[in-house]
Design goal:
The protein has 225 residues and is of the alpha/beta class. The protein has eight helices and eleven strands. The chain starts with a strand and ends with a helix.
């Protein structure tokens, strides 16, 4: 029997929800690993809505669960219904929706608050010693909820212009966590906390390298599960 994995989304679209390529990559690698996946998202209003064609804010309102259902092909549940004892692991793809909808990092940085259901989900898996996989900006959730943990968002310097958000590493360190520098096709395993992270689109890299990096994260999560 394959590992049971919960995938938590934050909407649909890089600028105001889950990054679609990251979510798809995670699902492909989980499928390849024989995992049984169920998808969840919080039933809340998005912090904002972005016109992805123009890259500018829109006045409309959207719901995180409804938008995430696009990625889940309609097969999705409210995050409030997720029970950690029914799963072996949980994975959070990235995208600005993580920093806007799952927490307030986009506005408040290291002083952010984490959505109550996201926080309780992370705490439940951690307490049960079940692995947590995070990519792109999602590792800030672990940094906020689990002081002292180890994560990666890529590099702590903008190496060759490929890591424009490298200052995130410093903010993670200010939260009392250890940032581990990794390349885009690598992941980091915090064995003590069973937290696996990879930088994904925090690095300007070819899509296949991001896909491969997410693959290493998924593989490590399944090994730990």
């Amino acid at each position: 029997m394959g590992k049971r994995v919960a995938l938590v989304l934050a909407g649909c679209g890089v600028f105001d929800g889950s990054e679609i390529h990251e979510a798809s990559a995670a699902l492909v690698h989980l499928s390849r690993g024989g995992a049984e996946v169920k998808i969840f998202a919080p039933n809340i209003e998005q912090r904002d809505v972005v016109n992805h064609l123009k890259g500018s804010p829109s006045e409309e309102k959207r719901n995180v669960l409804v938008e995430s259902a696009r990625l889940a092909r309609g097969n999705i549940q409210d995050l409030a219904e997720l029970k950690a004892d029914e799963f072996d692991a949980v994975i959070f793809p990235g995208g600005f929706g993580v920093a806007k909808n799952l927490c307030s990092w986009a506005v408040d940085g290291k002083n952010c608050t984490v959505n109550e259901h996201v926080n309780s989900t992370l705490q439940a898996f951690h307490s049960a010693k079940k692995p947590i996989g995070l990519c792109c900006i999602s590792p800030v959730l672990a940094a906020k909820v689990f002081p002292g943990c180890e994560v990666t968002v890529g590099q702590d310097k903008n190496v060759d212009g490929r890591f424009p958000d490298a200052e995130t590493a410093a903010a993670i360190a200010e939260l009392g966590c250890k940032h581990i520098c990794k390349n885009v096709n690598e992941s980091h395993v915090d064995k003590a906390n069973k937290i696996v992270t990879t930088c994904a689109f925090m690095c300007k890299a070819p899509l296949h390298e991001i896909f491969d990096g997410i693959g290493t994260m998924v593989q490590e999560v399944l090994k730990l599960a």
